[in-house]
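Treating backbone geometry as a discrete language has practical consequences that deserve illustration. Part of our work consisted of pairing the sequence of a single chain with a tokenised description of its backbone. What the numbers capture is local backbone geometry rather than side-chain detail. For completeness, the protein is quoted in full, as a sequence line and a line of structure tokens:
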Amino acid sequence: MVGQWLTSSMQTMVLSLLVFRISGSAAIIGVVALAQAIPQLLLSLLGGAIADRIPKKYLLIIGRAALAIFALAVAALISTGYLNTEHPGSWWILVIAAVLQGTAFGLTQPAQMSVISEIVSEQQVMNALSLNSMGQNILGLIGPALAGFLIDSTGFATIFYIITGLYLMDTIWTCFLPLTKAQNSRTGSAITDMRDAFRYIRSENIILLIIIFAFCHIIAGQPYQQLMPVFTETILKVSASKLGILTSASALGSLIGSLVFASLPNRKRGLLLLISGLVMGLGVMIFSFSRWWYLSLAIIPFIGLGPTIHATMTLTLIQSYVKPDYRGRMQGFFATAYSLATFGTFLTGIMSATIGVQWAVASLALFLLVISVIFLIFTPSLRRLA
């Protein structure tokens, strides 16, 4: 998964910056985000159902190979000169790329999220997920800073060729994963499995609360990442290299969180889940109104800590409290929440046109703070979850 980790750390920043430099519009960033969100939203639950029915290794190999092809196509279009700032209307190419990428993510993310529990023992799930997050965040320190430097020195095409190579490398290494058996051996259709998953959630209040909080946390907390180029280009007025450093600093906070949680026992996971919303919401609000590079750099690691706590606790609780033959589908709901984060980006981009990007991002962060407090007070069953 090294290739996936490194590409994830670079691609959101690079794609958002490319869109903003071509179009000059935060709203267009939102449109591209929406283009990725729609297929991801529509297909994540189906992907979860498929992940429960066939070995997850096969899904991951197909998905990685498809992503490599999409990245190579974007790199080629940049190299030919069609996709660049001299053609402001060329951003539609990135919309198509986002649709294809969202399709691949929607079908494969549930498998990626749930395969770990099939490789390690139940007692090691939280530690394994934390170590997985730690590896991702170590590369997250390197990727964005490297991408920013390469953009300033060689341009965007180099980055997309590197991303293509990383996806190909990840495809090859995925072939060496152990072949785990399908968790759901029933012969009914995948649509029937999806309906069954909804019934399961309605009967499990704890799982329902975890997923509702995940939707709120991701939709309200994540959009700042894709809109960060707007802050660096128009408010902080710094180069792509400093945008990369800022993104890497966020990964530093995530890395620290991963190191801590990799060694923790399985205690107070519900409380930590809810605290992640407070950390994320407050950090994003401060970042939104900062006009100083060093203040933004100082606060961004705390913002990075929030989603790491949230993702680790959510994935661990789902793996621990969900029946094995439902895990892929429950991860499908979690993947759906990540696809809806781009709806948050679309909404924030549209709001930015009227109230400005600072107030637009801060308003969603305030919503996350309020929701986290409400959950802390009124959902003791989730707060006390071990």
Notes: The chain has 16 helices and no strands. The domain at 2-177+190-383 is CATH 1.20.1250.20 (Growth Hormone; Chain: A;).
